[in-house]
Every structure is written in structure tokens, then in C-alpha cells.
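User: Teach me something about this protein's shape.
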Amino acid sequence: MPIKALSNVWNFALNAWLSKRFPDTREITLDIQRIFVIPTRLSAALLFAVLVLGLMAINFQNSLIYGLSFWLLALIVIAIFFTYRNLAGLTIRAIQSQPCFAGEKAVFELEVRCPDNQTKTAISIGWPFQDVETVTLRHQHSVHIKLSHSTRQRGRFKAPRLTLFTVYPIGLVVAWSYAALNLESIVYPAPRLQDNADHQQNADDHAMHGAESADGSTDFAGVRDYRSGDSPRKIHWAAYAKTGDLYSKTFVDYASDERWLDWDALPIAGVEAKLSHLCAKVLEYHRLHYQYGLKLPGTLIKPQHGDAHKTTCLTALALFGEHR
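Assistant: First, the predicted structure itself:
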């Protein structure tokens, strides 16, 4: 079997085992079944030194060398106990997440706490090659931390398992564990305006925002000379009574002040390009305090304004095309 295939089988089996040992949850408490203790390079070198000293003690029958060997061995055993105890009993709980735009970092807030009668020192929590926070709990029994993880594409982002580890107190061994918390965040499309679409949208906005219709029937606009064919209802009879000449009233209609972001009206090719443009327009309209609505295939969000409306629109763009 090729090496790559063996690696895939091993990774699948390992992930299945870890998923069983660390199921997804909102809170986890580390115990003996979830903590692993392995030697560091320093303890490996120390074990080698103990082996050499043991051989010397046997060869020379030297009680002092025997004592030193057993003392170093006991030091490693004690380090295993205290390092494990530093991690045992720790509780990690997911609190909330903050949405972000594609390419930015999603921020997660966690609570870390320990039993009332214990202290925890220098425990690192995070993801490899991402944020890692070091926590010490001595005078308080809980602390809130924020961790961020990079994102690449829009949609629902589920953070991988957290890694927790400590080498306290003397660095001879490392105790580590995982925390498979339900850390999920919404990733909005990256806001990017498309020049051609933006020009068309601005033209539409100009036509819709406060536009007048000269043949309207709502708001009185003034008086003009009578034209053949004008409706008798529009004749200004008061002016006729004063002057004897015919005048006609004029009315205008004003288009709605509501603005629409319409998926079908965008002359853009590509789903992600459209979503990025609409995302940028949502941010622009929100900044300008416009009242706007969003039309997507299968989704209609009525015109409103405010932070909650902005979040609703951005979430709809982020989850566009998702089936759950």
C-alpha cells in the first residue's frame, strides 16, 4: 500500500478515535481519560543520563551513583504527576463568536475555569499556527479569553479542535489535551465593489431616490398655461375666474426613498463576485443611513435600516446557496 494511502488511513482512524474521545460540546472538563502526558526532549535526555548512570553504578558498585540515578528517575515521575495535575479539572466553555469577512479572522470568546481549591499555571490554549493564549488561574477561578482563527471563504466557519497543553512546573514532560467545542462563526463575503455594476446601481438609485414624475397626481407643483387635451379636473378654475384665461394645475409624484439591492439586476458574472459587490453595497448604504432592501434568489428582505438589518442582510449573503 502506498505511503500516502497509509497516511490517509491513519489520519481517518485517528480522527475517528478523537471524535469519540472528544465529542462536540459547548463545555468540557479535562479528566484522566482526556489528558495525555508525553516526555519532552529534556526528559528524554535525562532518561538517557539515568540509563548511563545506572550502568556505571552496576559496573562500579557505587551507591552514590545509584542514589543519583534513582533521584533523577523520581524527579521525572514527580514531574509527570504535577504536570498532569496542572491540567486536570480545567473546564473550557464556549461563550460566543464574532462574525467576520472572508480573509479576516473569526474571534471566539471562551471561559476557562478551575475548581475552587486548585490553581492552574501557564496553560496554553489555541490552535497550531493560529492564536495561542497562555492562562494562569491563581487568585481567580475563571477567566475569559478571546482566540481568533483565520478564514478563507464565506459561509459557516467551524473552528477545529482546540489544543491545550502545559509543561509546568519544570518542563520535563508535557501534558496536553483537546477541546472539541462548538465554535461556529458566520463569515461574510469579502466586500469588493465591481466598477460596472456600481455605475449601473448608482444610475438606478438616482432614478429612484426622490425622482419626480411630471404627469403625477399626488403633490401639487404649480400652474401652467392650458394645453389642448388637459383634463377638466386639472383646470385651475380660481385663476380662470380672476383672469378669464385657462390654466392647468400640475402635480408630481415622488418615487419611494427605498433602495433595493437586486441580485438579478447586477450585470456581473460569477456568484462570489455578485455576493462581494452586494456585501460592499450593504456596508455603504448602512454607513449613509439609507433604507434598503435585498433581493436574492429565494430570499426577499424588506427595506429597513439599522445594525440589525445590516446583520440580517450580511448573513443572508454569507449563507447564500447553503442547504442545512
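Now, about its shape. Confidence is low (pLDDT under 50) at residues 206-214. Residues 263 and 296 are 5 Å apart (CA to CA). If you'd like, I can walk through any region in more detail.
User: That's plenty for now, thanks!
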